[in-house]
TrEMBL record:
Upper taxonomic lineage: Bacteria, Bacillati, Actinomycetota, Actinomycetes, Kitasatosporales
Name listed for the protein in its UniProt record: FMN-dependent alpha-hydroxy acid dehydrogenase
Record keywords: Flavoprotein, FMN, Oxidoreductase
GO MF annotations in UniProt: FMN binding; oxidoreductase activity, acting on CH-OH group of donors
Superkingdom to which the source organism belongs: Bacteria
Record Pfam families: FMN_dh
Chain residues that bind FMN: P86, M87, A88, Q135, T163, K233, S255, D288, S289, G290, V291, R292, G311, R312
């Protein structure tokens, strides 16, 4: 699908349309597991509201009729500044699970981030022609942590993404009210036999496997342990960002975990400019939490990100039509981004990162540069 292409009225025209279709297909407790946040879901709502308060300043008379969305993320060529975010338990929404998503990402020319809590062996996610990132939780079982790092390296992963904002799971009230548990068919197979957690609540399973004492000294251990580019996911404070860079981080993901951890945390898009200012060009910055359109991707670029991670919309596409549904979501996002870039007068990603943004927030929103 390309910008401006006519499509049948029955095809989804936005990522929200895809979510609506997924909601109609999924059991209510499964939809809530994917869609929900923690606590009163204030951060979940604020993520979207914050994007809408960030107003782009388009450039005119630029002669742009088409936009080139290609870029690199952590040294990996990408058809647009987007990677698939790490997410657990794909098979709860569709039996084809993670392999379908990894194939769709490879076909779209985008990196796929395999999760520690994936429901299939990691070697099934290393797709010929694809680019694999690996997301790591700091496990109580340190030997298993080391094994996962070794597996990621063996399979040719291009980056190691350490999640740092989950000492334990946030209190997700929808799941508690629904009594949602990890189905046996979606349980994480890359943990030890005693840690896979089928039939447990998500919170109970996380508490049994994730070590809440992760600290800066552990980050130093990970940095020494792997030769892969090391990315910290879940950074919102500029001081933390500076310290991570000082300890050898090659990238950061500005993220509040999609509103699923600390309820009341700052929206990621509003935290981004201060982190960009704090570290300059010392490492690459990605953003997640609340991205729902190509215009959102453009906003993130203009505020200093090199790219974004796309989460829930990928699962909605998977729920609707398996691999084909994920492909449709990624195609739609690329078409939206190309259109938004052209309308903003940005012929390529570097120009998009020079666009101005206006907005009001308690933190700084980057002024036109």
């Amino acid at each position: 699908m390309t910008a401006g292409t006519a499509v049948p009225a029955t095809d989804p025209l936005t990522l929200d349309d895809v979510e609506d279709r997924a909601r109609a297909l999924l059991a209510p407790e499964v939809y809530d597991f994917v869609a929900g946040g923690s606590g009163g879901e204030a951060t979940l709502r604020a993520n979207r509201a914050a994007f809408d308060r960030c107003h782009l300043v388009p450039r005119v008379l630029s002669g742009v009729d088409t936009a080139d969305t290609t870029t690199t993320l952590l040294g990996v060529p990408a058809s647009m500044p987007v990677a698939v975010a790490p997410m657990a338990f794909h098979a709860v929404v569709h039996p084809d699970g993670e392999p379908a998503v990894s194939r769709a990402a490879a076909a779209a020319g985008l990196p796929f981030t395999a999760a520690t809590l994936a429901g299939c062996p990691l070697d099934e996610l290393s797709v010929p022609g694809g680019a694999l990132f690996f997301q790591l939780y700091w496990l109580r079982d340190r030997d298993r942590t080391a094994w996962l790092i070794d597996e990621a390296e063996r399979l040719g992963a291009r980056a190691l993404m350490l999640t740092v904002d989950v000492p334990f799971m946030g209190r997700r009230l929808r799941d508690l009210r629904n009594g949602f548990a990890v189905p046996a068919h979606a349980a994480p197979v890359n943990l030890s036999d005693t840690q896979r957690g089928g039939g447990q609540s998500v919170g109970a399973h996380a508490a049994s496997v994730i070590d809440p004492t992760l600290s800066w000294s552990d980050l130093e251990w990970v940095r020494r342990r792997t030769r892969l580019p090391l990315v910290l996911k879940g950074v919102l404070d500029p001081a933390d960002a500076r310290r991570a860079v000082d300890l050898g981080a090659d990238g950061l993901v500005v993220s509040n975990h999609g509103g699923r951890q600390l309820d009341g945390a700052v929206p990621s898009i509003l935290a981004l400019p201060a982190i960009r200012d704090a570290i300059g060009d010392a490492c690459e910055i990605l953003l997640d939490s609340g991205v729902r359109s190509g215009t959102d991707v453009l906003r993130a670029l203009a505020l200093g990100a090199h790219g974004v991670l796309l989460g829930r919309p990928v699962l909605w596409g998977l729920a609707v039509d398996g691999e084909t549904g994920v492909t449709a979501v990624l195609d739609l996002l690329r078409a939206e981004l190309a259109t938004s870039m052209a309308l903003a007068g940005a012929p390529h990603v570097a120009a998009a990162r020079r666009l101005g943004v206006r907005g009001a927030s308690a933190t700084r929103v980057r002024e036109e540069r």
